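Quick check before the chapter quiz. The format below is the same one you will see on the exam, so make sure you can read both the input and the output lines.
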Amino acid sequence: MYVGTTLDGAWSFSGSFSGCTGSVNASTGAITVTGLTADSGSVTVTAMKRGYASLTAVYSLSKAYPGPNGEPAVVYSVRPSADVIVKDKTGTFTPASISCEKLKQIGNSAPYVTTEKTLKYQLSDGNLTDYTGAVSVGSATWIEFTLYEGSTVLDRERVPVIADGKDGIDANLLDWIEEWNGNKTDVGRELIISPRMVAGKKESSGKFTGVMFGRDMIEVDGVMQTGLFGMKNGDLTFSIDAQTGDAFFGGTVLVRKDAKNFVTMNYKDTDDWGLKGVIDGNEDKPVFQLGSVNKIGNFNITNSCIGKSTDRDNPTAGMSLYEEFIKFKEANRLSMIGSNVYPLSTGLKGVARFINKDYNRTLTNYGVEVDVSGANENIAIDILNGDVKLGNGVVKGGRYVLKYTSSLSGYQIGDDDEYIVCTNSSKVDLKLPATPKQGKTIWVKQLGSGMVGIIPQGNHKMYYRGSNYNWGLINDKSGGVTVLAMITFIGNVNGANCWVMNTMDVAGIKFGDD
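Here is the expected output.
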């Protein structure tokens, strides 16, 4: 490639072949033809360079066949004296005129100048004319030489005329355009102009809303900042610092499924910032918040707790999940399970606490209810080690007989009953279990003034001092003290399944057969 008569570099080349095959060197533009399948063909070469329009040249090829009787082929061509004519800005042509020779080549011999055939030329603004000598192009933009045999074209070459541009007029730049020209940034060995640009509007308050881009656009803490900036009513909503690359966001980003289900990320001030997720349009009750407020649903999030409170002893209502335990609290009821559920100030360690202090209620208060049942052995609580400590509590090991009158036929003690308290004013009979396991023990406490009969079932008997009896009787308060009787099933004695009954003072009980 040439600029005028000067070779210009940094061009790349590509080619396409019609009626023939070959290649074009991408760096030099050299054309190599490896085959010509038809009588004629063409090669189209495209030259490309960044910042320039692509240029195209077409080269025609003709196949030469051997002459008759083995004579060598003859090829005629034209050879202009210049490949290009340059017209400078003063109107001077280089060269001043152009000539053309007719060439003849026989076989593989070198071409030579010939007077054979007819040579004509044509200027871009003229007609086809017989060639007689050097030609001045005048105002033409090209000159074309054509070699004929009769009316048949044997060869044709076109020489372009290129002209230098006129001297430019100095631009009358606006002040702000001149400032752009002074703001140049070195990017990869190229100096790029750094403009200052603004898109937006001035609000009625006099403050700006929009986007700014450029050098020294806004002032932050007394320092002019360069980069990209977003403003809303004079407040910075986002920025990318051109010096450090740091990004800042101070507005609101909305990611939405629809108008009622979305996630927002915002920064208003130090008291209002972060993420918020909304479902079903309940913006006042987001499903999560992270930032100035940290919640999942109605549960607060801290560095050690998810829940309603961080206070172990006086939490608010609801559930709280701590690193060491989980807690449920409502009014006077508290449940805690974990690795340590006691405050450090108590000096205690525990894995569970259950507190129910619901006063003035018509319902029965429970601390813990355990219900275990199945085909095999059922163990509700298995204490492998440690003491069972009772403060002001009472272990109720069975039924509590509140009151019996003389009209009652009696009370059947259940297999699971272990402690019976009687407050009856008239005699009442307690029927012992019919199928007890050996060692089964029942405690009976007489608090009322009525007697309490102890009645074995089936073939069971009461055993006392070597004899079997049909019943036992708690008939009195011994010395004014209430009687506590322990009744134990001991198995077969004297041919019968027997129970024994003992008290602290035998004066309070008796046995009989009637």
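If your answer matched, good. The chain has one helix and 46 strands.
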